[in-house]
Amino acid sequence: MTALSTEHIPAPSGTAGFGVTAKAIAVRTARKILRSPQILGIAIVQSIVFLLMFRYILGGAIGITGVDYVDFLVPGFVISGMLFTAGGSAVAVAEEAAGGLYDRLRSLPVSDWAVLAGRGIADAFLLVVVALVTTGVGFLVGFRMDTSPGDVALALVLLCVYALVVACVFVWLGLVAGNAQAAQGLSILGVPFSFISSAFVPIATMPGWIQWFAEAQPLTFWINSWRGLLLGDPVVQSFEHDLSYYIVGGLLWAVVLLAVFSPLALRAYRKR
């Protein structure tokens, strides 16, 4: 992502100042994303290419009881794919930090929390856009939902929540990395979480010694909640727990991760 200008960042005045500042930074960053085809385009193309690889190259070798593999794959890929897309956000944050943007912002009478909130919201916006486009491509290659409008609406809300959490984690990664190359390297740490989850294969097919991690980690809760809301009873019946368990558990994981990584990001921001 391109660097954010410090021009016209409003000074805060209590709670309203926080909101105005966060909105200003989020809107400016989101506009730069939309006006930079290489940013949005690369993120979308990368996501689509990986989806097609799993759909047509690996999908034929993987069988899922009670549901077509493409239906099983798309929700899992969309949620886990946010970790790959967010790597670019971490690189952008590291570049902005190295370029002195955050030094300039800290010299202004604006809330540090607002700066990070604005950046996180903009990055979450990118993640949601890529996720929705990828889901649309999923329909083109055979994905079908079996759900209600209410469940779809809830799935969209959860997607936004999950995207914000992922954005927060990767903003922190970008701030602690020190430079773009290090940020890119640190982003690879998200890969094991993507594959050791319910994203691509049922957890029951994994070795017993790794199943406990796959079942407990946040991505599995997020993936199963999204998959259950979009596919309904055929897939929910295969879960170890009912759908509400994964929805509530996923939201609890979201709260925990935000509570941990938001202060860490603030600390890293102030130490730059």
Please explain how this structure is put together.
The chain is globular and about 60 Å long. Helix content is 76%, strand content 0%. The protein has twelve helices and no strands. The longest helix is centred in the first third of the chain and has 30 residues, at 69-98. With 272 residues, it is mainly alpha-helical.
Unreliable runs:
11-16
Annotation field: number of helices: 12
Strand fraction equals: under 5%
The end-to-end distance, rounded to whole angstroms, is 19 Å
Number of domains: 1
Helix-residue proportion: over 70%
Helix/sheet category? mainly alpha
In N-to-C order, the SSE pattern is HHHHHHHHHHHH
Write down how many β-strands occur, each being a DSSP E stretch of 2 or more residues: 0
Task: Compute the average pLDDT.
Answer: 89
